[in-house]
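In keeping with the milestone schedule agreed at the kick-off meeting, the structural modelling team has produced records for the first pair of proteins. Each record is given below as a sequence line and a structure-token line. The laboratory manager (R.T.) confirmed that both were archived under the project's standard naming scheme.
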Amino acid sequence: MPQPLARKPLNAYHHGDLREALIRAALQDAEQGGPEAISIKALAKKLGVSQPAPYRHFADREALLAAVAAEAFRQFSGELRAAIDRPGKRSKLSRLARAMLEFGLRRNGIFRLMFASRVIACAADDSELHAAARETFALLVEALEAPAVGLLRERQALKIWASLHGVVMLAEQGLFTGQMAGTTREELVEDIVAEAKLALAAAIDAATRD
């Protein structure tokens, strides 16, 4: 009588599946506790694999963090792209800036992994992480809706990025409530957007008249 086929355990992985499972599980941990919460040992236990198994896909914890951050940037870019493409009365830059603020506050653990850790600085320039981060930055440049004149758009985009990062981090730490200036986070973001667009328009005008 033929023996019944053995059922593959739920925690067993086909070739290549474990890498994605590790990234998904690490994203969940970062959501709760930021980059500090990501542990290869804990992930192996959670996924039901041997402790050496993750190292077949990631040389060390830093390599895993880079892959997780790259996926986070791709998800971030997806939300920003949706905000840009969504019809509305506000400008593309305003919609993108609001989306950045909302993402940073809603997914602060992931945001800290992306923007408040050394993960990007430690990654190679040609890594998937840098490529994913450049894609996000390109969306910000696109949202400015301005002609390319030298690197004026890119410089203004960096200023906006830095300003929005500051708003998110201050709010997350409870250091910005808006009461001191009689404003909300959303109103502050709109001020940043308006000033950025005016400054870029003036810089482009001055550059094209010279």
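The second protein of the pair:
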Amino acid sequence: MDRRRRPVAAWIWQLAAERPGTMHEVILDELRSVILAGLARPGAPINVDDVAQRFGASRIPVREALKTLMAESLVDHEPRSGYRVAQLTRTELAELYVVREALETAALTAAVSAATVEDDAQVAAAHQALSQAIEQHDARGHHVQSRRLHLALTSPCRMRRLLGMFESAWNITEPLQPMSHVSDEMTHGLHEDHRVMVDAFHARDVDTLLAASSAHYRRLQEVVAGLPTTRLRY
């Protein structure tokens, strides 16, 4: 029997082992970060021993972190196959965008009337950063700054549980990195939606804001329909 150990997955080396916090907190935060950034692709195996060795830890805090990520729907586990970065079917992904839209609509509706000048500044800064990422054809930056903008638009609602559900639904879709697979035309269409949303937010025009958000999610469903099958589970 060939007992040679297989190579450590490249994404393991993206885990920052030297940082403050308890071992469980550090491992959990780092695993979550690389998954959300798309560095560990959907379906990628997660070797408990490799992760433990990277942090100089036992398997116990690694397993605890993976259980938390399973509860967040970011990791799957099968008794004989071990842990893997969670995968979605196209139908599941489309359903999650429906959930995201419903939560975002509720948050935006409340956010407009509660927004402050400070919130306007946060939205403007996020929109500028997203525009820059798009101009530089930075797909990963596109994801990071798009998330930042949507959270800046919704955070003024000050509804902690609603925002928590919205962010959790967003996290489940994020590992697929769908913006890495859209055309320039679609990218600019999505960003035009962002511009209209930002302008409406600043003007406290909730009707225009919600109409632009609805158009944005219709485009996102087109993105889902066009994703390559290699990124999805059947």
